[in-house]
């Protein structure tokens, strides 16, 4: 239920309404807009009827049911865009955020050369998998803890914050020691115990859409993280599985404006997994940005033919540079921009 307060309601009255909501066993989520403040009362559906009593309060204008099944993720409860800050890098504002790096962390030299390459190209955040969810048990499973250490070293070297995947609830703490953003991969979108665990964690979460997940299910998975108390969820469209086989997945660009309409959470796009082919990554990246994505996550490798995972979809650093140059032209055409030297702007290393 959304409690709409009268214009000019005092802070003490807002606190009072929140206390009453919490006294009913629900959670209060205050959203201050330019015109008025609304409070979302979130929790067990069975307790909703108890809220009717709030209608009698002087400061309350009306009670409006939340129509969407996802509550904290919805624009009804939180009308303005959420902007998430990770070590000085903003995700969800007017500036686009570009995450780039190898699919898997393979070695110190591999990670260092890719990290330096994407930094030079203007990436804001370094990606790289240490725990890899592979379809085949015989495929490279990642360097695990050693990979996390290499990511920490790459952060020290470049100043780029790190996004990396966590596969299991009991590894969340370990991965969070090394990562600035925890990635939940497509295969774990409905691993509810993992979602609950990262909901308790203080690191932002990059939540990738599953290959057979509807947008409603996608936002309900985000709701699990938000309901656990972690408000920093970044959504990611990475393609869904359809009858089409020309590309690895069908990159659902329409999901971007649909999600933007339904949710205040930032959404970025992963054209690498969406297309699965190096030659298709740039056109899909350009389209995703034009469609309103808040950023991109792109796989880059210096020797993709020898990559231990996803080489076919990994760009060469020079291709990444070209894409960044194109994005700097597209961004202003749609009212966005790209910070040119994010590490220097944050005063890193000075
Ligand atoms: C990845 O980012 O390398 C990855 C495994 O992605 P997804 O979960 O989208 O398949
Ligand atoms: Mn990959």
Give every kind of bound small molecule, once each: phosphoenolpyruvate, manganese (II) ion
- CATH-derived topology of the largest domain: TIM Barrel
- Provide the CATH top-level class of the largest domain: Alpha Beta
| Distance N to C terminus | 49 Å
Secondary-structure map with pairings?
Elements (H helix, E strand, L loop, with lengths): L1 E4 L5 H13 L3 E6 L4 E6 L17 E5 L19 E3 L2 E3 L3 E7 L6 H14 L3 E3 L17 H14 L3 E4 L6 H7 L2 E4 L7 H8 L5 E4 L6 H13 L5 E5 L17 H8 L4 E3 L1 H5 L2 H13 L4 E5 L17 H17 L3 E2 L3 H4 L5
Parallel strand pairs: 7-8, 7-14, 7-15, 8-9, 9-10, 10-11, 11-12, 12-13
Antiparallel strand pairs: 1-3, 1-4, 2-3, 5-6
The structure holds phosphoenolpyruvate and manganese (II) ion (MN).
Summary tags:
binds phosphoenolpyruvate; binds manganese (II) ion; 33% helix; nine-stranded parallel beta sheet; four-stranded antiparallel beta sheet; 18% strand; Alpha-Beta Plaits; 2 domains; alpha/beta; 350 residues; TIM Barrel
What can be said about this structure in brief?
The chain is an alpha/beta fold and 350 residues long.
Structure description:
The protein has helices at 11-23, 108-121, 145-158, 172-178, 192-199, 215-227, 255-262, 271-275, 278-290, 317-333, 342-345, and strands spanning 2-5, 27-32, 37-42, 60-64, 84-86, 89-91, 95-101, 125-127, 162-165, 181-184, 205-208, 233-237, 267-269, 295-299, 337-338. By secondary structure, it is α/β, with parallel strands linked by helices. The chain has two domains: 2-64, Alpha-Beta Plaits; 84-345, TIM Barrel (Alpha-Beta Barrel), CATH 3.20.20. The strands form three sheets. Strands 7, 8, 9, 10, 11, 12, 13, 14 and 15 form a nine-stranded parallel β-sheet that branches. A four-stranded antiparallel β-sheet has the order 2-3-1-4, with helices on one face. A two-stranded antiparallel ribbon has the order 5-6. Helix 9 packs parallel to helix 10. It starts with a strand and ends in a 5-residue tail after the last helix. The model has no long low-confidence stretch (mean pLDDT 95). Bound molecules: phosphoenolpyruvate (PEP) and manganese (II) ion (MN). Phosphoenolpyruvate (PEP) binds next to loops.
């Amino acid at each position: 239920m959304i409690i709409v307060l009268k214009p000019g309601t005092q802070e003490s009255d807002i606190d009072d309404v929140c206390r009453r909501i919490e006294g009913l066993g629900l959670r209060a989520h205050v959203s201050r807009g330019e015109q008025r403040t609304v409070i979302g009362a979130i929790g067990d559906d069975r307790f909703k009827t108890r809220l009717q009593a709030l209608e009698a309060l002087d400061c309350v204008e009306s009670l409006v049911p939340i129509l969407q099944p996802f509550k904290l993720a919805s624009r009804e409860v939180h009308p303005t865009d959420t902007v998430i800050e990770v070590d000085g890098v903003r995700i969800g504002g007017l500036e686009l955020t570009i995450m780039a790096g190898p699919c898997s962390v393979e070695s110190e030299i591999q990670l260092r050369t890719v990290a330096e390459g994407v930094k030079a190209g203007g990436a804001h955040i370094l990606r790289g998998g240490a725990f890899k969810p592979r379809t085949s048990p015989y495929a490279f499973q990642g360097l695990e803890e050693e990979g996390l250490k290499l990511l920490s070293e790459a952060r020290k070297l470049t100043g780029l914050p790190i996004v990396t995947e966590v596969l299991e609830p009991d590894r969340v703490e370990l991965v969070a020691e090394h990562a600035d953003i925890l990635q939940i991969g497509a295969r774990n979108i409905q691993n509810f115990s993992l979602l609950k665990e990262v909901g308790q964690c203080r690191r932002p979460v990059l939540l990738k859409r599953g290959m057979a997940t509807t947008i409603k299910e996608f936002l309900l998975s985000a709701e699990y993280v938000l309901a656990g108390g972690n408000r920093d969820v970044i959504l990611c469209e990475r393609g869904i599985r359809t009858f089409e086989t020309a590309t690895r997945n069908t990159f659902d660009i329409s999901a971007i404006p649909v999600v933007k309409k339904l949710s205040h959470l930032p959404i970025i796009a992963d054209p690498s997994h969406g297309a699965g082919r190096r030659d298709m990554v740039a056109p899909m990246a350009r389209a995703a940005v034009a469609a309103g994505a808040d950023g991109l996550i792109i796989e880059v490798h210096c020797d993709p033919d020898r990559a231990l995972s996803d080489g076919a979809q990994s760009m060469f650093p020079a291709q990444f540079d070209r894409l960044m140059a194109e994005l700097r032209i597209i961004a202003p055409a749609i009212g966005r921009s790209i910070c040119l030297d994010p590490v220097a702007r944050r005063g890193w290393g000075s």
